[in-house]
Amino acid sequence: MKILLVGAQGRLGKHLTTELAKENITVLPFNGDAKNLNMLKEQANGVDVIVSTVGANSVEDFVVIAENIISVAKINHQRVVWSGGAASLLTKDNTRLVDTPENAFPEAMRGWIPAVFGHAKVLELFKNSDIVWSYMSPALDFQDVNPRGNYLAAASDKALYNASGVSFASYTNGAKALAAEIINSQFIHHRFTIIEEF
User: Fold this and answer.
1) Which superkingdom is the protein from (predicted)?
2) First to last CA, the chain
3) Is the pTM of the predicted complex or chain greater than 0.70?
C-alpha cells in the first residue's frame, strides 16, 4: 500500500510515518502547498490513500485543502483518511466547543479558532461528498506526550471517556489509530474518536 501524507512534517504526521513504516506501508510526504490543486494532483498520482494530518492558519485554508483532497480523490477513486479535531464532539454535559461564538473564546484559546471551526467544516464536506472517507476526532485532551495506556477507537459523535472519566489520548496512540484505519478501513463514511485506558 502507498499513501500520500499531507502534513507529514507536523508532529502527528511524524508519529504516523513511524507507525506506517512498521507496517511496511510506503509513505509519500506531500511537499508544497495543499491549497494548490495541481500540486496535489501530481503528488497523489498512483497512491492508494490520501491521508491528512495537516494544520492550517485559517478556517478558509482548511476548507480549501479538504476540497482539493476530495476533488483529487474523486478523480482517482482514492480513499481519504483525515485527522480532524475534537471540538465538534459532544462532551459529557452535551455541549460542543464548536458551538462557542468566536468572540467568546478566551484570549488564551484564540489560536485554536482555525482548527476548531475549520475541522468542523471539513467533516461536513466529507459527509456531503461521494468519496470513500474516514475522519478521526481525537480525545478532548490530545497531547504529544508518552502514552498512558492502550487506546480504544469507536465510531461516535460523542467524546469517549475512560474508566477514570478522562477523555485523553497521546499523539502516539492517535497515530496508531490512524494507521489502523488506513490498513483496515473500519470506519468508512464515519467519524471515529479515541481515548486511552489508564
Assistant:
1) Bacteria
2) 33
3) yes
The 10s digit of each residue's pLDDT in 121-152 is 999 999 999 999 999 999 999 999 999 999 99
Q: Which domains does the chain have, with CATH numbers?
A: 2-196 (3.40.50.720)
User: Rounded CA gap, 83 and 193, in Å?
Assistant: 10
Task: Say if residues 192 and 81 touch (Cβ distance below 8 Å).
Answer: no
User: What is the CB neighbour count within 10 angstroms for residue 193?
Assistant: 26
In sequence order, the 6+-apart residues with CB closer than 8 A to the CB of 38 are none
CA distance 47 to 64: 21
Give dist(CA 151, CA 165) in Å, integer.
14
User: Which of 156, 7, 16 has the alpha carbon at shortest distance from 86?
Assistant: 156
